[in-house]
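Let us walk through a complete example step by step. Step one is to write down the protein sequence. Step two is to encode the small molecule, zinc ion, as a SMILES string so that its atoms and bonds are unambiguous. Step three, shown after the inputs, is the structure prediction itself.
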Amino acid sequence: MPPKPPSPKTEFMDVEVGMPFLRTGVPADQFRALRQKVNAEAGFDFLSKCADMMRSKNFRSSKPGVAVKSRHQCGDAFDYNIESPATVVVREDAGGHTQFRTYLKCAPQDGNLGVLKTVTDYRGKKVKARLYDFTEAAGSLGWHRIPAHKGWTKTGKNFSKMEYWHYQNTEGKSWEEAMKFLYS
Ligand SMILES: [Zn+2]
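Step three: the predicted structure of the complex.
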């Protein structure tokens, strides 16, 4: 049985994650669209499992980099499955910010999915594989990454500041507007 929806204005996403709900409208619709697109174009259901999705309105965390007013509370953000062996995460610096691009190793590798590419991941490891640009696919459906928080590190307690797994699709709603829509 699915868990209880945190608000009647959310939809069940049928994803393996603690609270598998997103806000009704653009976030819910575009997550389904992205999941389907990635499944078709990378050859596997990458978004069937996520690291995080919705958080309750009273959610608080003491982890470094976790926002007090989190978009996860607004039901318009997800953190993808960080532990997936298919991800290849590449550092990109622009305008004084560090962001990360996520590629997925396509399944299968001998087919015509993705593009054969050689990239160096943020740990310095060279990867040559047929890769699918997840960040670009997400962006085409309104799901945007956020820059890493200052002080991020590749390991240890400030790893959570990297945020490369976080995507949000806010419809231009502020945190307050989204919360009002969900809980008024
Ligand atoms: Zn997140």
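Step four is interpretation. Residues 10-87+141-183 form one domain.
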